């Protein structure tokens, strides 16, 4: 896609990503004031880019991540903060992606880390809960499903949050639900800047999907965040990328017809079609659809056995320092005996370990 213009068309969706300055907040009043600051970004970016259809803000951009007071800053969806953000979207006739960290958990557990998508009428149309929190530091309760909704001009949008993006399974599942743009909001810090920049391009390429990343920039009480919010084409090439300066905004156009044509007509490098049509040149007419991956078949059939496979390559406890401390594993005398028993019987005794809730 050509870049450089500030308008969009019926065939293109104008997308902006924001290097939002890291907020350090201690009260709900400060959070609400920050919501108005985010809303002012929406106003300003729409003024500068009349073709803006979707604006994306990073993880932790609303409430920050206070190392001690994070629980005091939790809110609800909808809530007073989303009311401010909804009004900004409605006022500017744009869609917006916003972060809620954390959202109160109605089941009474730890809060969720949420991505909220608001349409140009001010309605919340998606509330995605982060499936893979960044353990052991993040205290958020994990979500359990990927989400896709129809966005501006019919573009189908899927959601991921930060550490989610390190797992190819999440993006593939989201794309297989129809996503044409996968959004990744993140609060990623040094030193993993280069890895995360590469991941955005790889996830786009391997899934023939647009990929948009919004990251924090600056420093809070703990980490320094590298920015580099970006918009990636479905062929894995970079359309637009911020630097590391807080407050930077980048804008690009996503063609609806281009991605749909590629998915329908590409042969070589059509990783979506070829996934379930393996070797159709030799095994015609449509190739082989059966899943050849033992681990994924096992994970669906026996999650405990899949867990044991992971533990056999890594460790059996949540934290490395717990390894070998003699904790019982649901009837086994020790970790070592549990491993031996599982190996001998081809079954698994899953560790009954839970991290103490973050204080």
Automatic annotation (TrEMBL):
The name this protein carries in UniProt is Aliphatic amidase
CN hydrolase domain location is: 13-256
Keyword Transcription regulation (UniProt): no
The record ties this protein, via CDD domains, to: aliphatic_amidase (cd07565)
Looking up InterPro entries in the UniProt record yields: Aliph_Amidase/BUP, C-N_Hydrolase, C-N_Hydrolase_sf
Query: Looking at the record's lineage, which domain of life comes first?
Result: Bacteria
Any one GO MF term held by the record is: hydrolase activity, acting on carbon-nitrogen (but not peptide) bonds, in linear amides
Among Pfam families, the record links this protein to:
CN_hydrolase
Q: Does the keyword Membrane apply?
A: no
Provide the alphabetized UniProt keywords: Hydrolase
